[in-house]
Amino acid sequence: MWNYVDIDLDGDGEREREIPTAQDKIRQMIEAGVRAGMADYDYRTALHLASSNGHLETCVFLLREGRVDPNPLDHSSTHHLMMPFVMDTKI
Q: What is the span of the domain harbouring residue 70?
């Protein structure tokens, strides 16, 4: 479930609700001490998952801000750049 953030989006002095982006949530987790390059039981990282689902902005964020390894391999030695092709994802 998303936590809403109340901020003044348009500068009129009134606070509006905004749903945080994936990058906002990842940034919060990194600030809480979670390693952005952690892998699951199949050795897939957040970079693998973002790439396989066509989330280019999240991939760029993980590489730049999360400072993740740009060359992780999963359990079947699949590189994250190959994930969209393996998963037949439209990017």
A: 21-86
